[in-house]
Automatic annotation (TrEMBL):
The keyword DNA-binding applies. Keywords: DNA-binding, Transcription, Transcription regulation. SUPFAM superfamilies: cAMP-binding domain-like, Winged helix' DNA-binding domain. The keyword rRNA-binding does not apply. This is Crp/Fnr family transcriptional regulator.
Amino acid sequence: MNSNVHFCLKSIPTFSSLDQRIRGKMCSFASQRLYKVNEYIFKQDEAADTIRILLYGVLKLFRVNECGTETILDYVSPGEVVGYDTFFQQNVYNYTSCVAVIESRICCIDRANFERLLMDEPTLMQTTLSEMSNYLANLNQNILGNKIMPAKEKLKSTFLSLGQDHGVEIEGGIRINIKLTQQEIADLIGISRPVACQLISELVDEGFIDRKGKTYIIRKEHLCPNLFIMSKWKEC
């Protein structure tokens, strides 16, 4: 058994409560891989034959249209599973590509073997369905929020979310550990780049954030008391 993989599976919230026997079976068809900055994890139309769990680092999910325009869908945080939307149905990533924003380590699980194990192990099936339900609930909440929330509030919420998932505590606030262009920020909340530029300037003027190039810092006085900065799972 790969003890390194077993340790990381135990450390991942999704699988931490599973019996050691089940994690042992998963380890038999799991491996780890280190990805460099800007290295693709997968591309649109590639075979969706692997379930991936980010151990540390940052991943970007995006799609490219026929004109070559890139639209960011989400950033993946340590501990999150990539591939829920392919379970039992898709053989390729129809609409999504994934790239490492910073050096990232991923636990890779063979999808076919994992799906067979799901059918044999009710506890694993229950755990996975629960996580998928949470994933869909959060997705629906984000969609609803994007429809009814004013653009500036969406931007504030996005900065706080990025700070929680990808933030580093510094004196005076939290630095978002991802370099973001104005277009990338606009894509995340579904507005135009000029509007994003204007709103970012307003948030700087209001003291909500500080900006240094493509780096953003959420000012300490605007942070929630219970903001949790996720570890980067370096021990794996």
